[in-house]
Specification:
Two copies of one chain form a homodimer.
Chain A: H1 4-13, E1 17-21, H2 30-40, H3 44-62, E2 68-72, H4 73-77, H5 80-96, E3 100-107, H6 111-121, E4 124-127, E5 130-133, E6 139-142, H7 152-161, E7 164-170, H8 176-180, E8 183-184, E9 187-188, H9 189-200, E10 213-218, H10 222-231, E11 237-240, E12 263-266, H11 274-277, H12 285-303
Parallel strand pairs in A: 1-2, 1-12, 2-3, 3-6, 6-7, 7-10, 10-11, 11-12
Antiparallel strand pairs in A: 4-5, 8-9
Helix pairs in contact in A: 2-3, 3-5, 3-12
C-alpha cells in the first residue's frame, strides 16, 4: 500500500531519482523533430509524434537506471488531444518497462470533478457496466488548497488500487514565499499544508511507515528539510533540487529518514536536457540521458545509503 | 482587455450566469448514451462521442440565454485523449455560437510547464515557425499556491490575447476552512490569496476597471462577499452558489459592484442536470436546460441591475 511499491523500486535500483520527462519545443533533438514535420508539416500532430518518439527513446535509455519518471503533463496538454494520446502511450510503455510513473499534473478539484480526475490518472472510468482504464499512472501530484474534499476521491483510489499522490507543500520557485511562507500562528502556511497532508493520509501507512499521501518539497536548505522531515514523519517527500542541473546538493540527504527512505529527488530536467547541455546535435540523446542519470544516481549513492 | 469581453456579453444578454458543463456518467441522457454504446460498445470512445453530442446539444439550447459556459475539464480528461478531442470540439462550437468559454481546469505549474498550460488553454503552441491554436478557451481557472511564478505565464497570454483567468480564492466546499480559513496576521489565508491576485493583476485593468486576473469565490454569505467585494475592488468574481440547485440565494448580489458588474454566478450544474431533476427520460434535455437557464437568469435579473 501507499509508497511501498516506489520504495521497493528505489531500493532495488539503489537510486532515489525521479527523472522528469515532458518536453518543450527546444528539448527535442532536431533530427527527431524534422523527421515528423517533414511528414506532417509544422502541426500539433508532428509535435506529438516527435514527443512520443523522444520519450519512448528516453524510457529505453533510462529504464534500468532510474526507478521512476515524473511526467510533466503540461507539455503533452500543449499539444492538444494528440499530445494526450502520446502521453497515454508513454505511460503504458514506461510501466511495461518496469518504471514507476508519476503524472505531474498538479490536479485539484471538488466532488464529481475530483473523482473524474482520479479516474483519469489513478483509477478507471465507468462506461455503463465496464471499467475503462485511462491514463493509469501510479502516482499523481495534487494541489491541496481546497482541503480534504479535494483529496479524498484520490485517496480512495490510492488505497483501493495501491497508488499514491504527492500534494504541493513547499515549492522551489522564488515566489513560493509570497504565499507559502506566510505565518499562521506558530507555523508557516506550507507547514500547515504539510500537517494537513499527514492528517489526511492517516490510516494509509504501508510497511515502510509512509502514508499514501506524500508532499512535494522544493529546495534543499537544511533549515527547510530538517524540521519538515522530523515533523512529517509519515509523509514521503518528492524533492526538487534547483541546484541539480550541475550536480546534486549534499543537503538533499536531510529529506531522507535514518534508513535512507521516505524521499526521492527529481532531477530538474537535467536528464532530459543532457544532450543539449553536451552541445551535440542530439543524435546521441539516449547516451547523454543515460550518462546524466548514472551520474546523479552515483552522487546520490555517495550521499544516502538506502536500507 | 481583461474581463471587458465577458462583461460586455453579460450586459448584452442581461444575464451574469456561467452555465457549468462537463458531464459525469449519470448526467448524459440514456438515449444519447445508448446510441453510442450500441455502436462502439462500453468504451471510452462511446463515452466521448456521447459527451460530445450532449454538449453540442446543450450549447444549441443555451447560446442565446447565457453569456458564458464553464467547462469542467476533469470530466473530459476522464475519457482520455478521446475526451480531450471532444473538449476541443465543444470549445470551438461554443465560441462559434458566441459564447464566452471558461475552461475550469484549475491548472497550476511553474516555468516552462506553466507556459505550456497557458499555450494549451489561452495561447498557441509553437511548432517550428508555426503557431498552433490548441484548446483556445477565453478564460482558465488557476491555482495560486505557488505564487506569481505560476501566474505570470498565463497573465502574459491574457494581456497579449485579450484573455482572462480566475484564481481559486475561497471555495464553496465544507473543507475549504481547513486551509483557506487559517488566520495569518490580520487576514484569513483566502484573503491573503485575494490580495495577491489583485496585486499580480496590476496594470491589466480594462474599461470596466477589472483586471485580467479574477477570483473564484464560493458561497454567498454576506459576511464573506461584502468585505471581499470592497477589498478586491479590481477583481472580477466567479461565484459558485451551493444553494443554486434550488434557486439562487438573494445574497449573491453582494458579489457585484454598485453598477451590477464585476461578478458572474455559476449554476452548480443545475442547468446540465435539469432533465434528470425533472424526472423525465432525458429526451427533452434541451428544453429542460433552457428552462433552468431562463429561470436562473430571471431570478438574477430581479436581484441585480447591470449597467
Amino acid at each position: 500500500m501507499s509508497f511501498d511499491v516506489l520504495q521497493d523500486q528505489i531500493k532495488a535500483k539503489k537510486n532515489p531519482t525521479a527523472a522528469i520527462l515532458g518536453a518543450g519545443p527546444d528539448d527535442i533533438p532536431p533530427h527527431i523533430f524534422k523527421q515528423h514535420t517533414a511528414r506532417y508539416g509544422e502541426t500539433l500532430e508532428a509535435a506529438a509524434e516527435a514527443a512520443l518518439e523522444f520519450h519512448l527513446g528516453l524510457i529505453d535509455a533510462l529504464a534500468d537506471i532510474v526507478p521512476a519518471i515524473a511526467l510533466s503533463c503540461a507539455y503533452f496538454e500543449a499539444l492538444g488531444w494528440r499530445g494526450m494520446r502520446a502521453l497515454e502511450t508513454v505511460i503504458a510503455y514506461a510501466k511495461e518497462k518496469g518504471l514507476f510513473v508519476i503524472a505531474d499534473g498538479k490536479r485539484a478539484d471538488l466532488g464529481g470533478s475530483a473523482a473524474a480526475y482520479s479516474a483519469a490518472w489513478l483509477g478507471e472510468t465507468a462506461v455503463g457496466g465496464s471499467a475503462c482504464p485511462v491514463f493509469s499512472a501510479d502516482c499523481l501530484t495534487l494541489g491541496g488548497y481546497m482541503g480534504s474534499d479535494a483529496i479524498k476521491p484520490f485517496l480512495k483510489d490510492c488505497t483501493e488500487r495501491d497508488k499514491c499522490a504527492f500534494v504541493l507543500t513547499r515549492t522551489p520557485n522564488p515566489s513560493a514565499r509570497e504565499f507559502q511562507d506566510l505565518v499562521s500562528g506558530d507555523r508557516q502556511v506550507y507547514t500547515a499544508m504539510g500537517d494537513l497532508i499527514q492528517r489526511w493520509g492517516r490510516g494509509t501507512a504501508g510497511k515502510y511507515g509512509y502514508q499514501a499521501l506524500g508532499a512535494v518539497v522544493g529546495g534543499t536548505q537544511p533549515s527547510l528539510l530538517k524540521p519538515l522531515r522530523r515533523r512529517l514523519d509519515k509523509t514521503f517527500f518528492l524533492v526538487s533540487d534547483p541546484a541539480a542541473r550541475g550536480g546534486v546538493s549534499a543537503d538533499v540527504r536531510w529529506a531522507f529518514d535514518e534508513l535512507g527512505r521516505g524521499a526521492m529527488i527529481s532531477d530538474s530536467r537535467s536528464i532530459l536536457r543532457a544532450w543539449s547541455k553536451a552541445g551535440g546535435d542530439g543524435t546521441n540523446y539516449q547516451d547523454a540521458a543515460r550518462g546524466a542519470a548514472e551520474q546523479l544516481r552515483d552522487e546520490l549513492r555517495r550521499l544516502i545509503t538506502i536500507f
